[in-house]
C-alpha cells in the first residue's frame, strides 16, 4: 500500500517539475524579449578626483563635479543615451545606437577641452570606455557582461582617451564621420586571451591627420614632450645652447605660485629651462595636470620666450593657449592649477603689478623678507620665498625645494621661520645636513651661513638689503615687522 502511494507521489512530483520547467522557459522568453537588448555601454571617469578633493576641499570639489555634470549629462541625453547612474566622479550610460555612443564620448571630450581652455581654476581630465553586447536593461540599472567589459575598457584608457572593444568597433567602422584606430591588445580580467583595443579620435588635429592617412597611434601628438603641428618649431640654427649664465648676466626669473604651497622663484640661469612634472626637468611642477615635459623658457638675443612643448593641458596666457610667447616683465601663465610669473631683473623693466596696484610693492617686499637660494656648481638654480609655511627639501618632486640627486633623501630637511629667525632641521637624512661644515640636527641659520646638502649649497638671503651698510637698518625693520605680526 505504502509502495503504491510513494509511486503515485513521485509521478505527481515529476509532472509538477516538468510544468515548472515549461513555465521557466516562458518566463525566460518574456524576460529576453522585454528586457534583454543589444546596447552599447559607456563609462566615463574623472581622473584625479581623489587628489583634487584633498587639495581643494569638499565644497570646491562639489562645485567641480557640478561643472562636470553640466557638460556630460546633456551630451548623453542629446545623443539618445540613457544615464543609468553616477558613481561619484563617473557615469554609466547606455545607447541603442553604437554611433550615438561614440559621438557622445567625442562630444564629452570636446566639451571638457573647451571648459579647460577657459578661465577655470582647476582643469578636468576624463577617460571613456565603450563596449557593445546584450544587456539586461531595467528601469534604473543594467546587468550583464556588456557592463563589466565596458568598465574594463574605461580603466584601460588614459586621461582624454576614448577606448572601445572590437564588438563596438566593427559595428561603427563604416561610419565616415568617425576616426577609429586599432591601438593594442590587452588582457581583461575575466576574459580568455588578449582583447583588441580600439581608440576613437576626437581632437580636430588627430582627425585631420587620420583622414590624410598620416595618423600614427604609436605617436600621440598630445603625448608628453611631443610637438603639435601648429607649433612654430625652432630652426636648427636657433637651438639654444645649454650653458650656465652667471649671477651678473642672469636677467630673469620665474615665480611659481600654487594654492596651499609657498611661492618659489627660479633663476633663469640657462638659455633653455624645461618646466614639467618630471624630476629631471629644471622647474618641477608635481601636479597630475602637468606633462612630464610641459613647456620651456628659452633665451634668444636677450629676449625671453615661453614655449609649449605639445603638452596635453597647454600653456595659457590671458586665457588663450600659446605656443611661443615673448615674455615681458610681469607676464603671467597658467599650467593647470599652477601660476607662473615672469620677472625681469633688468633695471629698465618695472614690475607691472606695482604699476597696477601701488600697495603691491609693499606687499611684494614684505613677502620676501627671507629667501632660500640654491646653488649647484657655482650657479644659482632656484630661489624660494620663505613664509609661515615650512619648506621641505628633498629628492622627490612633491618637495618644496627639489634637489634631484641620489645622495639627497626623499625628505631630507626642512627650513622654517620661528620667532622671526630662520631654522633648518635635518629629517634623519642618510647623508646628513651640514651648516658651515658641521653636521646638524636643528640650528638657526643667518645670511652669513652656508648650508650644504649633497652637492648643493643653500643660503638664506634678505632681498631687501641692497648694500652692506644697509644691513643693520633693514634688519631692524624686519624685526619690527615680525614683532608686529606676532601680536596680531
Automatic annotation (TrEMBL):
<feature type="domain" description="Guanylate cyclase">
    <location>
        <begin position="40"/>
        <end position="154"/>
    </location>
</feature>
<dbReference type="InterPro" id="IPR001054">
    <property type="entry name" value="A/G_cyclase"/>
</dbReference>
<dbReference type="InterPro" id="IPR029787">
    <property type="entry name" value="Nucleotide_cyclase"/>
</dbReference>
<feature type="domain" description="FHA">
    <location>
        <begin position="391"/>
        <end position="440"/>
    </location>
</feature>
<dbReference type="Pfam" id="PF00211">
    <property type="entry name" value="Guanylate_cyc"/>
</dbReference>
<dbReference type="GO" id="GO:0006171">
    <property type="term" value="P:cAMP biosynthetic process"/>
</dbReference>
<dbReference type="InterPro" id="IPR000253">
    <property type="entry name" value="FHA_dom"/>
</dbReference>
<protein>
    <recommendedName>
        <fullName>Adenylate cyclase</fullName>
    </recommendedName>
</protein>
<dbReference type="GO" id="GO:0035556">
    <property type="term" value="P:intracellular signal transduction"/>
</dbReference>
<dbReference type="InterPro" id="IPR008984">
    <property type="entry name" value="SMAD_FHA_dom_sf"/>
</dbReference>
<dbReference type="InterPro" id="IPR050697">
    <property type="entry name" value="Adenylyl/Guanylyl_Cyclase_3/4"/>
</dbReference>
<feature type="domain" description="FHA">
    <location>
        <begin position="273"/>
        <end position="322"/>
    </location>
</feature>
<dbReference type="Pfam" id="PF00498">
    <property type="entry name" value="FHA"/>
</dbReference>
Amino acid at each position: 500500500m505504502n509502495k503504491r502511494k510513494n509511486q503515485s507521489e513521485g509521478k505527481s512530483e515529476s509532472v509538477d517539475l516538468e510544468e515548472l520547467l515549461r513555465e521557466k522557459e516562458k518566463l525566460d522568453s518574456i524576460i529576453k524579449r522585454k528586457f534583454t537588448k543589444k546596447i552599447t555601454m559607456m563609462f566615463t571617469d574623472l581622473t584625479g578626483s581623489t587628489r583634487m578633493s584633498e587639495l581643494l576641499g569638499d565644497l570646491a570639489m562639489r562645485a567641480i563635479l557640478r561643472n562636470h555634470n553640466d557638460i556630460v549629462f546633456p551630451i548623453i541625453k542629446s545623443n539618445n543615451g540613457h544615464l543609468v547612474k553616477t558613481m561619484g566622479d563617473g557615469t554609466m550610460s547606455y545607447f541603442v545606437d553604437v554611433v550615438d555612443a561614440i559621438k557622445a564620448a567625442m562630444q564629452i571630450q570636446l566639451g571638457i577641452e573647451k571648459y579647460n581652455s577657459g578661465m577655470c581654476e582647476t582643469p578636468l581630465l576624463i577617460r571613456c570606455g565603450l563596449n557593445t553586447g546584450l544587456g539586461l536593461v531595467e528601469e534604473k540599472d543594467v546587468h550583464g557582461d556588456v557592463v563589466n567589459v565596458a568598465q574594463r575598457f574605461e580603466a584601460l584608457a588614459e586621461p582624454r582617451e576614448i577606448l572601445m572593444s572590437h564588438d563596438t568597433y566593427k559595428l561603427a567602422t563604416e561610419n565616415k564621420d568617425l576616426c577609429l584606430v586599432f591601438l593594442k591588445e590587452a588582457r581583461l580580467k575575466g576574459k580568455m586571451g588578449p582583447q583588441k583595443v580600439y581608440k576613437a579620435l576626437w581632437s580636430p588635429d588627430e582627425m585631420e591627420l587620420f583622414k590624410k592617412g598620416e595618423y600614427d597611434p604609436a605617436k600621440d601628438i598630445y603625448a608628453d614632450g611631443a610637438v603639435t603641428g601648429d607649433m612654430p618649431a625652432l630652426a636648427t640654427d636657433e637651438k639654444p645652447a645649454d650653458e650656465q649664465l652667471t649671477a651678473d648676466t642672469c636677467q630673469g626669473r620665474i615665480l611659481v605660485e600654487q594654492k596651499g604651497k609657498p611661492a618659489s622663484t627660479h633663476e633663469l640661469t640657462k638659455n633653455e629651462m624645461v618646466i614639467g612634472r618630471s624630476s629631471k626637468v629644471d622647474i618641477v611642477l608635481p601636479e597630475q595636470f602637468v606633462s612630464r615635459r610641459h613647456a620651456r623658457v628659452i633665451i634668444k638675443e636677450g629676449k625671453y620666450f615661453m614655449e609649449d612643448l605639445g603638452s596635453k593641458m597647454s600653456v595659457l596666457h590671458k586665457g588663450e593657449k600659446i605656443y611661443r610667447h615673448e615674455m615681458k616683465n610681469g607676464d603671467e601663465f597658467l599650467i593647470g592649477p599652477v601660476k607662473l610669473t615672469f620677472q625681469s631683473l633688468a633695471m629698465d623693466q618695472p614690475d607691472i603689478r606695482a604699476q597696477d596696484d601701488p600697495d603691491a610693492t609693499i606687499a611684494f617686499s614684505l613677502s620676501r623678507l627671507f629667501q632660500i637660494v640654491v646653488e649647484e656648481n657655482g650657479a644659482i638654480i632656484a630661489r624660494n620665498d620663505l613664509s609661515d609655511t615650512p619648506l621641505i627639501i628633498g629628492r622627490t618632486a612633491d618637495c618644496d625645494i627639489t634637489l634631484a640627486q641620489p645622495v639627497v633623501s626623499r625628505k631630507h630637511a626642512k627650513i622654517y621661520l620661528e620667532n622671526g629667525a630662520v631654522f633648518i632641521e635635518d629629517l634623519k637624512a642618510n647623508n646628513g645636513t651640514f651648516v658651515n661644515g658641521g653636521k646638524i640636527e636643528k640650528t638657526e641659520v643667518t645670511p652669513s651661513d652656508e648650508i650644504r646638502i649633497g652637492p648643493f649649497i643653500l643660503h638664506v638671503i634678505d632681498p631687501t638689503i641692497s648694500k652692506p651698510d644697509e644691513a643693520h637698518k633693514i634688519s631692524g625693520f624686519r624685526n619690527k615687522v615680525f614683532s608686529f605680526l606676532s601680536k596680531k
